[in-house]
Amino acid sequence: MRLIRCGFVVIFLFVLLQCMAIIIGMAAEDTGQLFTMEEIVVIASKFPEKLLDSIASVELISAEEIKELQAESLADILNSISGMTVSDYGSTGGIKAISIRGSSPEQVLVMIDGRVVNDAQTGKIDLGIIPASMIEKIEIYRGPASAIYGANALGGVINVITKEGQDEIVGNINVSIGTYGLKDYEVAYQGSSDDVSYYFSGNYLTDDGVRENSQLSKTGVFGKVISKIDEQTELGLSLLYQNYNRGVPGSVDFPSPQANQKDNNFDVDINWQRKKEDKDYNVKVFYFFHKVIYNDPGMWGYVGPSTHATNSFGAAFDCTDYNFSVGDEEGSHEHILTYGAEVKDNLVNSSDIGEHNGLNGALFVQDVWQPSDMDDLKVTAGVRYDYNQIFGSQLNPHVGFSYRLQDELNFHISVGKAYRAPNFDDLYWPEGAFVAGNPDLVPETAWAYEAGLRYISKEGDFKGELNVFRKNAKNLINWAVDNDGIWKPLNIGQARIDGIEILLEKELGDHVKANLGYSYLNALDLDTDSQLKPYHKYDFGIGYYDNTGDNEEEIYARLDGYAITGRPNDLTSYCFIDLNIGKELTLGKEDNQKAKLEIAVKNILDQQPEIVTGYPVTGRTYTTGISFEF
């Protein structure tokens, strides 16, 4: 009953804020501007464009929003975003996997600074490994995007943009302690000198966990150096090392009190960028190493630990011509042409599936055309060709229209094709008495359709978005028992996903802003006529922000939450609410040195549902932290 009442309250607040937004948007003249029409995103078109003009549903999460959430990892940031859900295996160290608009985690492409970090063996990424402390901002593309990003972008794309050095040389130390023995230490140092900027950070976290054998310890080091070669050209180098050691308690019904898993990641990115007056060039060379060691001495038939190592290396190039010409007539220079190529090789050496590699190559082109006699219309068309030595080639087109109905209101509509490639576990899991891989699998494919309205007020104090979408997928890869009694993956699934998203953000005066969101999802397995995902998700938040005293000390308080209802198989609905408070303290008036005290209460309602069957999530927790700049 409490969850039902919570649902009604959320719906009431949603309608109330929508009415308030319309009234206040017409009458108010707030001086603060927390939102702006000039917010720039890159993810939808691979070049900078105004958020209002995007042909897709795009979300931008800023550095300030990330800081105020007091998140430990990428998973904590994405939890309350509309249209997205995180599969949580319970404890702090439990695997966190993302779903966008009802997709599987393998269908979501996750990138760090434009480089894919999905594991080639499993096809997904544990979002809990990526620390929030290294993230500057996040761009999210809801819906299929294979026309420019290729494989595994069937559900959507998440691009994590990491921090980089600023003009002022600053060091920062942060110490946090919390429930269940949580201890989190972070240090960062950034700045610039002459034509070089730099950012370095390190973090160490330990957590005793709630259940037996759910402890966690992790260490991470990140560095980014950018050298400005001339006024138009820069060269960047970034390094990331992570060591993740966790207990694996297993499900409640089938515990594994002796199991543990160690993850080691090492990433190197070299990025060359040149920006001329009418052209941008980007070249990226990357290497990614991921090693997993899983050990369970208590397992029946134990023969030793399982070891899995993935090496991915490759290069990518893209160019955007902002003044592309298709003729000599007047108005011919109203095209923005983006094209590029990518090559990547994935090498897997696993004690379970053996040694395998998959070489991938791709070419893509996209044209954005604005007719000279229709300034409010923008037409985007693109296509990408991918070739994989294992499963062959894929061609994925995309076309979209964006039209400014008013200066503040934009309409967009699009259609495109996307796909998800089988991962190495799908293809090569060793054949045994009860389980086997399937080397004859073909990629999952889908056609997606979307239409939406996006509104951003001139004052920058109100944003609203309405999206309607459909995705028809086929050849879904489903692990199930075949006619021989063997558990294996087969291309037997077909699904249709229909949905509606409503997103509202409103500045209520100079110091308060609020957001509300609602997602309806009808994800249907057409083979079994069964529901695949929850029907409803409600997102809500309100925050107070100010600077007080003679020293302009920052203070904020945020209440954020989301509720999931209408889960498949009559699973329990749930609602999570978090409270985050931060206050600056002046240490020295002469040099204006400040410290910041932060307090967080997560899962205020102490909900402990099983988002993943058999893995109840952690209940209410408390965290206190203090940070110093030097």
Describe this structure in words.
- The chain has helices spanning 2-27, 63-69, 74-78, 146-149, 424-428; strands spanning 40-41, 49-50, 57-61, 84-88, 96-100, 108-112, 115-116, 135-142, 156-162, 170-178, 182-193, 196-207, 216-228, 233-247, 260-275, 279-295, 306-324, 335-350, 354-369, 377-388, 392-404, 409-420, 444-456, 462-481, 487-507, 512-525, 530-531, 536-548, 553-565, 574-588, 593-602, 610-612, 615-616, 621-629.
- It is mainly β.
- The protein has a single domain, classed as Maltoporin, Chain A.
- The strands form 5 sheets. It has a 22-stranded antiparallel beta barrel. A 5-stranded mixed beta sheet has the order 3-8-9-6-7. It has a two-stranded antiparallel ribbon with strand order 1-2.
- The longest helix is centred in the N-terminal third of the chain and has 26 residues, at 2-27.
- The radius of gyration is 24 Å and the shape is globular.
- Residues 1-37 have low confidence and may be disordered.
Mean pLDDT: 89
CATH T-level fold name? Maltoporin, Chain A
Integer tally of domains: 1
Fraction in beta strands: over 45%
Helix content: under 10%
The CATH homologous superfamily corresponds to TonB-dependent receptor, beta-barrel domain
**Structural Rg:** 24 Å
Q: What is the CA-CA span between the terminal residues?
A: 51 Å
- How would you classify the helix and strand content by structural class? mainly beta
Largest sheet: 22 strands, antiparallel, barrel
CATH C-level label? Mainly Beta
Instruction: Please give the CATH architecture.
Output: Beta Barrel
Low-pLDDT residue spans: 1-37
